[in-house]
Structures are given as structure tokens and as C-alpha cells.
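Render Astacin (Peptidase family M12A) in 3D.
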Amino acid sequence: MRINKSILLMSMALAILSCSENEPISELENLEPDNQVFDGAERANFSKTGTTEDGFYAGLPISYELVDGKRIFEGDIILPKDEIYTEDSNFVLENGQDPSLSRSVGRTSGRWPNNTVYYTIANDLPNQSRVTNAIASWENNTNLTFIERTSESNYIYFRPGSGCSSSVGMVGGRQNINLASGCSTGNTIHEIGHAVGLWHEQSRADRDQYVTINFQNIQSGRDFNFKTYVEQGYDGDEYTSSLDFGSIMMYGAYSFSKNGQPTITKKDGSTYSVQRNALSSEDLEGIDKMYPDGGDGGGEPTYENGQYYTVYGLRVYRYNDKWYYYSSQGWREVVYVNGAWYYA
């Protein structure tokens, strides 16, 4: 007698199914479903919303989100807590004041010296290949070299987190890139972008020429995430000629939306797609200017007259090869002497 193999296999499958309906699969009992929906903007914490705080950075007012003790800007950027103040004072000292009162900091461009980034990966970080693959993407397409840390004092520490987040540029000492299990290789490429000095693309100083920010659609208390970095007192250098909708650093059209409507549109009112696959050609163009071949990304920056810069923690304007700062007394010339800014 011939037995129909298809019928036999189907009977076995039904038997297994009837058992599995009553016997839970132990591996899945404690597994929580992945409810994360990527709206085009990384988050420092996928499940928690912090409180909105105000302070001063580089002598200018800034708003940020306080989440688990971290000062978070634009969703995933970690602000250095020792550079945020509650009062607008002592950013520039008068002659004769004690330099210990100064609130300036010893960081200018935040570039990694010799185009070399040191890093280490926490042993308990799940899926470490997303880090190594992201690093490979950077090394294969830019002039940056990533080396596992031995005893270097300045380095990136990839560790588990509640979301995807990073500081911008080399901040000194250990700086964390936090990666939740939902952070992909593309998200990791994005966070490394912050760590080597890139800001979000939609925060460009000239972004209003290319996009419209629909503030009426932004979640309550999150509108500060959509200011340009010049408005927030940060480095305003542009390394490409126009906004790049394909940049891996670009917010999505629906980022931080409260009503399902776009928060960012093109000037004609249309939306766009965001990608987290690889660095775009314009991303690479900008990085090559920041870290040229054979160059020293951490070398002394050059300054042009008629431009704003953040230098040693102060937002200053370059005019006739001198620095000027706008205070309650108007524009005044300032000089940096022995670790502190003074009025000239």
C-alpha cells in the first residue's frame, strides 16, 4: 500500500501544531514584541520621555530634554553636562577677575587627531556585528581609521542603552555611544557620524532654503529639536553646498509628529524618504573636508572673517581677524588668555 507523503507530512504538522497550542515555547515566553517604529529620528530612549529644560551653552540659551540624567538634544545627541549652565554669566570675564570663574571649555572643533578614532565595545552589548559593520562602512569610505583602544584616554565606548545616542565630536575622555537592541547597523553609522563631528542635516544654518518646519505638527515640548545649530549656539560650519535629503544624518519627514502629519516638508509641500543604509555621496564629501586624506582632523582650525564659531565654549564672531561676543552691553571684542575669555 502506498502512503501519500504529502498527507503524512500534513498530519505530522497538525499534530505538532495541536501540541504547540497548549505548550508554550520557552524561548519566547519572556520576549517582548518589538513595538519600535522608526519615524526617521533616533532616540536616546525609545520608551521614556524626559522633561524639557532650559540653560545656557556657549553664552547662548538652549533647550534640551533631561532623560535619565542625560541632557539630550534633537532626540539622540548627548550634551556635555559640564558645558550647560543655568545662568548667563561668567562666559566672558572682565579684566582682573579670577580666571577660575570662567565657564569656557578647552574644546574647539572636536575633531579626532590624526584621523584616528579609538574605541572599545562593551562585552554585554548584543549583536556586536552592527558596530563592526558600521565601523567597516566608515573605514571603507572615508579617511578615518578606527582602532581598538588599549590605554588611550580619548575613545568611544559602545555600550547597551535604552535607545540610540552619542555626543558630537571628540569631547575628551570616554564618550559613550548607547545602542538599544532596536538600533540597527544604519543607526550605528548615524551615531558614529555624531561622534566624529556631524550634526543632523536638517539643522543646517541654511535649511530654510530647502525645507519648511511644520511646528503645528510637532509633539508638545519638542519644537526645540528643530532649531538650527547656529540658533542653539553650536558650530555652524557647512561642508557641502546644499541640504542633502539622502544624508544618513537627516531627520525623516514625520519625526516627532504628534498627529501623523509631516513635521518637515520640502519647500513645495511634498515629503521625502529617509535612509539609514549608508553614508550618502554628500555625507562623504563633507567628511572628506573635515578629515582630508593624510590630514590631521584634530589640527588647528582656520577661521574666516564674517563667520560665527564656537571657540573654547563661547559663541563668537570673527571680524577683522578679531573675536567679538554679543552681551547685554552689545558687541564687545574678546580675547582668550590662559584658559579663559576676557573682554579686550
